[in-house]
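Long-time lurker, first post. I've been practising inverse folding by hand and with some scripts of my own, and I keep getting stuck on stretches where the structure tokens seem ambiguous. Below is the full token string for one chain I'm working on. Before anyone asks, I'm not after the true native sequence, just a reasonable design that respects the backbone. If someone could post their per-position residues I'd love to compare against what I wrote down in my notebook.
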């Protein structure tokens, strides 16, 4: 069961790695921290997480040959990855545990395979978990492209798309983010055009006007295998794409068309509100015939920021306008010489986009405050436990 480097690359192993074998010593161009971990676990082999279940992980070392996604097998996780997260000392926060798309090191064969280490990620798509306490939830790791899937039906909502784009801005540091591209995939173009000729062009136009002129927008019929071929620039071998979007947006339909087979179960949309049933129940990494890997995610009802997002980066148009306001600390409310309000009045800035910007800015600030509290609490626990250790060392000497 020894995977070749080609096997690993075909499920997304970094190609820059120039690896000739699983030998950390010969490799200079692996992502930061990888060589050290490979060295530290000489008996382990790399594998990628393709499915995440409540009870554990499915990992793979090579692409699909039959029914099982990527010849996957079950691997036991480290005990600290299964305990509930409390953010107490020694606990592993959910975002620090492996997720679909992560590369891990595995030891043992057959039924006794177990994950021994998590390789640092180059990108991570996260959101704030639902619930009262601050928690992060990892959606996918090590992705190159995010397909924001949105149906051109009653569900179409540019404000929600702005929210998804904001999520992409919270994925890591600037260098990591620059490698990560969002693409807006508008499904149900066939239905929209039939209902109202010109609707697709109008929606596409509206989204292109959202701040970033380079933003990729593709409108298509997700059921049409030829139509989804327009996504091929992002589906080159070794690339990883994650699909995000509301339930019923067409993520599974798109996956099926890209696969060319009927693999994911798709829910029939209820006539009245055109929302799908919740058919995708867990995240999974699926190798595509094109050589890319696709991560499908269950529809998301709530999309809370983690506090790490960069609102300015997502709303460059508004930030640029704000620079032209007469007052540096302009709140864009009733101040004279406000360039933002002037743009809204002139019709060059959408008032709803501005309102959404304010709302998201508040949400990110709120989440950032909670995140800071949590980190402070964690640091405090660390200081306390260090103090205890020191007292014990002083009293009993080093053990
Ligand atoms: N006509 C048409 N129907 C589509 C298109 N995309 C999706 N549908 C239909 O919309 C419904 C929902 O699509 P799914 O692919 O199940 O949606 P999903 O995003 O996977 O939903 P979850 O799994 O719940 O997250 C299905 O009945 C699809 O056949 C499209 O481009 N054109
Ligand atoms: Zn202003």
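-- Answer (accepted) --
I ran through it position by position. Result:
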């Amino acid at each position: 069961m020894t995977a070749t480097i080609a096997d690993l690359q075909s499920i997304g192993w970094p190609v820059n790695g120039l690896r000739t074998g699983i030998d950390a010593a010969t490799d200079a161009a692996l992502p930061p921290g990888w060589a050290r971990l490979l060295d530290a676990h000489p008996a382990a082999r790399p594998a990628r997480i393709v499915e995440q279940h409540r009870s554990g992980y499915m990992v793979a070392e090579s692409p699909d040959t039959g029914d099982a996604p990527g010849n996957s097998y079950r691997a036991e996780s480290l005990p600290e990855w299964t305990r509930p997260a409390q953010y107490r000392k020694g606990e592993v926060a959910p975002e620090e545990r492996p997720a679909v798309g992560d590369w891990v090191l595995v030891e043992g064969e057959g039924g006794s395979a177990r994950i021994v280490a998590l390789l640092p990620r180059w990108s991570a798509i996260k959101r704030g978990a639902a619930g009262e306490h601050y928690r992060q939830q990892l959606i996918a790791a090590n992705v190159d492209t995010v397909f924001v899937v949105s149906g051109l039906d009653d569900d179409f909502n540019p404000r929600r798309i702005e929210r998804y784009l904001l999520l992409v801005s919270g994925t890591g540091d600037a260098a990591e983010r620059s490698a990560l591209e969002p693409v807006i995939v508008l499904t149900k173009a066939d239905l929209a055009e039939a209902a109202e000729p010109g609707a697709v062009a109008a929606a596409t136009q509206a989204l292109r006007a959202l701040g970033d002129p380079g933003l990729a927008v593709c409108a298509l019929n997700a059921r049409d295998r030829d139509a989804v071929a327009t996504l091929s620039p992002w589906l080159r071998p070794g690339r990883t794409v994650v699909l995000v979007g509301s339930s019923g947006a067409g993520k599974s339909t798109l996956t099926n068309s890209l696969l060319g087979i009927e693999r994911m179960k798709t829910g029939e949309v209820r006539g009245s509100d055109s929302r799908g049933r919740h058919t995708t129940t867990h995240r999974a990494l699926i190798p595509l015939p094109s050589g890319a890997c696709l991560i499908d995610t269950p529809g998301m009802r709530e999309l809370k920021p983690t506090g790490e997002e960069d609102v300015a980066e997502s709303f460059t148009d508004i930030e640029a306008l704000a620079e032209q306001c007469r007052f540096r600390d302009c709140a864009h409310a009733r101040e004279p010489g406000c360039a933002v309000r002037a743009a809204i009045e002139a019709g060059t800035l959408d008032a709803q986009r501005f309102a959404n910007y304010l709302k998201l800015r508040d949400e990110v600030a709120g989440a950032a405050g909670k995140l800071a509290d949590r980190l402070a609490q964690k640091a405090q626990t660390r200081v306390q436990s260090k103090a205890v250790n020191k007292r014990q060392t002083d009293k009993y000497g080093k053990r």
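A couple of notes from the structure itself: Confidence is low (pLDDT under 50) at residues 17-27, 267-281. The chain has three domains: 5-118, 127-296, 311-371. Happy to go over any region you disagree with.
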